[in-house]
Amino acid sequence: MVIDVHNLNFSFGSGSLTQPVLKGIDLAIRKGEIVLMTGPSGSGKTTLLTIIGGLRQASNGSVVILGEQLVNSNEQTKVKIRRQTGYIFQQHNLLKSLTALQNVCMTLELQRDLTESERQYRAQQMLAAVGLEDRMHYFPEALSGGQRQRVSIARALAGRPKIILADEPTASLDRQSGHDAVEILKQLAKELNTTILLVTHDYRILDIADRVVELEDGFVKAVEKQE
Ligand code: ADP
Prior knowledge:
Elements: E1 3-12, E2 19-29, E3 34-38, H1 45-52, E4 60-65, E5 68-69, H2 75-83, E6 85-88, H3 100-108, H4 116-129, H5 145-158, E7 163-167, H6 175-192, E8 195-199, E9 211-216, E10 219-225
Parallel strand pairs: 3-8, 3-9, 6-7, 7-8
Antiparallel strand pairs: 1-2, 1-4, 4-5, 9-10
């Protein structure tokens, strides 16, 4: 399993202000699987993503990501997991002052094993893979919403992460561009054997999933197999 969460409990606050958010989550995701997570607003989906990505610390239960236990882990382990995880957000979060190509290159700067020209080449390849070979030198404001989200998909995958965590990536897009963007994400993830956990309220994209899980009131309520 790439993601193996067992009996995870998580609360915000302390003392009389404690607010339990996750109340015993069990979730196991295999390598290369694409899992969509739905559920009402406030049910803990984003909180769960941040724990799995090593951005938030849990102290109860078990969260084994890529073979590393994140519960009560040290900073080094969390950094290791963060480096192997790519994020896609609701808003594309691109830097306005950089072109599409520069935005993708920037994330590759952490990859010390690549030379500058290898980074450029990799970024160009990724932008071509999301259908933006003719938009590489455009600034974000000159791109449509769907194109910007495709740049953020290229950026998230450029470092060849083992896991992609996506938080409502189609929420700011119209139906067609949202569907196109996640379809591209799915194809690339399958080619690169990347595991995806994607939070969404968008029932129109459920068809890209290998599996859909629903979070409700801090529990994984239902697991639905896709045909
Ligand atoms: P979802 O992504 O399913 O909408 P969240 O994980 O964002 O749910 O939030 C779950 C619950 O935790 C909500 O009640 C929310 O108000 C609360 N919460 C989220 N982030 C924080 C925070 N940083 N501090 C305190 N409470 C928070």
